[in-house]
Amino acid sequence: MLRHLLACLLLTSAMAGEPEVRVSAPDNIDPSVTIGARILGEAYRRIGYRMVLDRLPSLRSLNMANSGQYDAELGRVAGVGVQYPNLRAVPTPLGNVQIFAVSLSDTIRPRNWQELASYRIGTIRGAKVVEQHTKGMAVSYAPTEANLMAMLQRGRVEVLVLSDVLANRALARIRQQSSVPPVVTPFERIPVFHYVHQRNQHLIAPLDEALKSMHKDGTVERILEAARRESESSTP
Fold first, then answer.
1. In the beta sheet, which residues pair with residue 184?
2. How far apart are CA 121 and CA 143, in angstroms?
3. What SS3 state is found at 180?
4. Structural domains in the chain?
5. In this structure, are residues 90 and 39 in contact, taking their beta carbons and an 8 Å threshold?
6. What DSSP designation does 182 have?
7. How many angstroms separate the CA atoms of 10 and 85, rounded?
8. Bridge partners, residue 142, by sequence
């Protein structure tokens, strides 16, 4: 009993002495947010910090990180610093998001963002990358991939635009619920970068080294593979 108590006290003491970094993140259901948080949490651990993650509406997450109310923002595509000048990107990406188009027609195979303009599009609410590339197009949003699948099967949309993990979930549902084979077209791979507030620029170099090491030693790939397995097992 005494040994257990001492161990708890030592752990509490270690945690109390560990500097904390508060990171904001989008609150949408895209699994890439969870995956990015696992990768980033390990990167911060390697440089001696404990990451505390708060999920917020996507735009608020960026605004609050840019204003300095958070130490950093989880992950965004390149160029965010143009609109949010107080945010600085860590050069090594957390990873890449593969974008897929999923349809039920062999004639609908968009190969790039421009070709999507010919169709009625469905995507996850809060998917900022898709929103940015489909401005002016006919886009419908839904909170889950199950809702999107229903829209696709009822003909309300002609093509779904999803990240890789969500696309895999959608494909599993299609194969279970429809005799029509899905048509899947990968058309862009987008790197995602972690952004810190400018007052925390001193964290950029050590975080960059930690992420490089994680890519090299296979940690990132192991996290991605674990997420794929979880996604497959959670699909009804």
1. 102
2. 14
3. coil
4. 18-95+192-234 (3.40.190.10), 97-189 (3.40.190.10)
5. no
6. P
7. 41
8. 124
Inter-residue contact 37 to 56 (CB < 8 Å) = no
Q: Which three-class secondary structure state does DSSP give residue 189?
A: strand
Q: How far apart are the first and last CA of the chain?
A: 44
pTM (2 d.p.): 0.77
pLDDT along the chain (236 residues), means of 10: 43 61 86 90 98 92 96 92 94 92 92 94 84 92 86 94 78 72 87 97 98 97 86 60
Contact (CB, 8 A) for 72 and 196: yes
Q: Quick count: other Cβ atoms within 10 Å of Cβ 220? A: 21
Task: Quote the CA–CA distance of 156 and 139 in Å, as a whole number.
Answer: 10
Answer for the pair 158, 90: CB distance below 8 angstroms, yes or no: no
Question: Which run of H or of E encompasses 194?
Answer: strand 183-197
